[in-house]
Amino acid sequence: MAHDPLRVPAKDLLPMEAEIEHRRLADEVAEHDRRYHQEDAPTISDAEYDALRRRLDEIEAAFPHLRARVTQAVGAAPSGKFAKVRHSVPMLSLGNVFSVEEAEEFVARVRRFLDWPADRELAITAEPKIDGLSLSLRYENRRLVSAATRGDGAEGEDVTANVRAVLASTGIPDVLPADAPTIAEVRGEIYLSHADFQAINARQAEIGGKIFANPRNAAAGSLRQIDPKVTASRPLRFFAYAWGEMGTMPSMTQTGMVEAFARWGFPVNPLMKRCADVAALIEHYRLIERERPIIGYDIDGVVYKVDDLALQGRLGFVARAPRWAVAHKFAAEKAITRLNAIDIQVGRTGALTPVAKLEPITVGGVVVSNATLHNPDEIARLDVRVGDFVVVQRAGDVIPQVVEVVQDRPRGVEPYAFPTICPCPLKTPVIREETSSGAEGAVRRCSGEFACPHQRMEHLRHFVSRRAFDIEGLGEKQIAFFFECPVEALRIREPADIFTLEARNDAQNLQKIENFEGFGKTSVSNLFAAINARRTIALERFIFALGIRHVGETTAKLLARAAGEWPAFEAMARRIAADETEAIAELQAIDQIGPSVTEALGEFFGRTDAVAMVDRLVAQLVILPAEKPRGESPVTGKTVVFTGSLERMTRDEAKARAESLGAKVAGSVSKKTDLVVAGPGAGSKLDKATELGVKVISEDEWLALIAPAAGPDTAGG
Ligand code: IVH
Questions:
Q1: What's the CATH number for 84-328?
Q2: In CATH, which of 3.40.50.1820, 1.10.150.20, 1.10.3430.10, 3.40.50.1970 is domain 538-624?
Q3: 477 is catalytic
């Protein structure tokens, strides 16, 4: 992909193209960094990653103002409750128009108001309307002194500490250059990219935290955290597009102001354009509308603003919206359809998720027949009933959602009662579980555990998934087939059954798998080869594959490290199940392992069915011991960051080696970093290290440092 002959050399890109490609690449790189460093699950090769990075570097070299804003800062002390801030100039809202005709009418109105002749140019800017939350940043003597949310427009909340925690990811400058006025209030929008939003929700799901409905909510929730450290972990972004108090005006046009913001170091939207007439305005609206699906963050319209600030002054305001600006909203990606049924899906851990079965309808170009209803509380909040007409929306362009019930409800529609018994054949009672604080949680669960076929099936799906056993040719479809295989003796009902399948297929007097439709002799022998290849498995993968609640990949790795070998892990888990305080305390002493994990482990290993299932599985496998950190190594307990290209080893290798020596490998440089290993081409991480006074060494120095400890006998040691 880096060698795509059709690709324009970075230096020949138009500034807008460069901005767009840069943003996309930065998102991609950030996502791969996350997969690599936080989940230990890279999904692309080093070469592919390097190609992405190289292109990013090329673009940044040609357009230095684009320097990636991917690293994140570590937050300051907690702020406590938010204080109120009075805006020196009110933060206004915008009027809306919903069609081209209304947009044209807006311009006509402005012209009439100003008595502007039809043949005289009236420049108007057009830019995306970001679906985030607005923020006002106050600089005094060119230093950031406060940051406030919009609030009611007159008074907002003081989020200065949180904004300080995300200066790096947002690109909000802490200090303005010398030519900026002594008092400057810069305003704009805080938002999250789609990729970061999804990553946050994935992480939230893993830790059992709140799932955000859309990027806007996630951005708001992230900014309004009591603990700035939490905010710091969320890669918020920012675009500057407006201002409040301004000591001296750097320009007397809208475009000039935004250009000044860009010079001062603020990120500004590359899709902003100055249009000389209505036709150009509408043309740009169409362009932004076309870009919308690939822009990487939520926008809900285009904002038009009269470019000349003197004219803005003349136009003034009506109520709380300016007469000189308007939001041209996109046709909402919403549709009305009938709710035919509410299905209850049973997840791997038994969580019951209500799913709206809809009369199929096109929403924003995609046919939707299912939408999530989240949980019973959401059903109650909406008072949604089977037979209702509902408004369906594609939130963040991804998961369709039922947002409201259309008022006039058809006759005879009954309130929905969430099942009190599981929809599975077992008909077990549904339990409403308590959260760790003892409050009633929103989630209902099937109490059937492994006896429940739905949970079993989901459990098997997880078991064979890519980050778990990853058996080629045994995906969801095949699992579903073998789960209900017409020949009972060939069914797969639990993980151990996968590994006995071949022997069972070879048994006498049986219909063979190769005779079923969709299978052939070759595919069956390939399948068995793939299964056999997985009989030997790394301990951390194995632990992850067990599908214990709250034990995601990262946690599985920590657990594997702590135990070393499967028998030790099992013994530890059983002690926890037996409520041995010492074992619990020992495990919780590990950084990042808390009560939810020990509770879940104890619960899992306290169940006879689960333990028996694990025993049957273990009998089929060889579980490799975790690579144990060496007790004595110069880097034990140290946090190391690799940056730039390494010439004597791949990044994966360097990381594995460092970890096997007891070092922690981090993806970004912070005050906690002990050592940065920098190869050629090291960029922002190296700068950061220098800035923070973190020790930097070369790859050769690194190899020399670890040489005494890292021998060929390291593995398994
Ligand atoms: S200009 C005086 N420009 O939309 C006008 N607002 O509905 C100040 N918004 O509260 C706002 N993108 O949070 C402006 N490019 C943009 C915007 C934008 C998003 C939000 C902003 C504002 C709301 C008004």
A1: 3.30.470.30
A2: 1.10.150.20
A3: no
